Amino acid sequence: MEQNYGSGVQACYRGNRLYDTDETRKLVHEKVRHYKQFREILNADIIHLRRPTGRDWDGILHADPALRDKGYALLHNPLDRPMQTTIRLPMYYTGIRGKARVQVNGGTAGVFTLDERQQISVPVTIPAKSSIWMLIRQG
Fold first, then answer.
1. pLDDT tens digits, residue range 49-91?
2. In the chain, which residue ranges form alpha helices assigned H by DSSP?
3. The whole model's pTM is what?
4. In degrees, to the nearest 5, what angle opens at C-alpha 41 toward C-alphas 88 and 129?
5. What is the rounded distance in angstroms from the CA atom of residue 65 to the CA atom of residue 63?
6. Which of 2, 18, 44, 120 is the most exposed, fewest CB within 10 Å of its CB?
């Protein structure tokens, strides 16, 4: 569900039941709530940040300069161990100039200066076999 909704897919799940425990029901509710909260940017154009190899992180960036939320990045770690790395995000298609305000997983926003290639470098930790998201606004 995270991959589908994070990619902007408005999935329709069918079957006898969508969840079988209260814990699963809460997870489904949270994923749907998150999608609805960021629906506009999640339905924006997608930029693939790198080719997925299964041996390192991979991710996508939604971008729309006309929205308040100019970008939304979804990064995946397929490995069995947490990954600390610095991600370079292209800001050209977001319309952001000068500084970008980045919020990782809904935490405190950091401000990053665009370099000469209109990119920002964001240090992140991606948990093992998991993903993180970043909301990007004009800084």
1. 998 899 999 999 999 999 999 999 999 999 999 999 999 999 9
2. 2-6, 22-37, 39-42
3. 0.88
4. 55
5. 7
6. 18
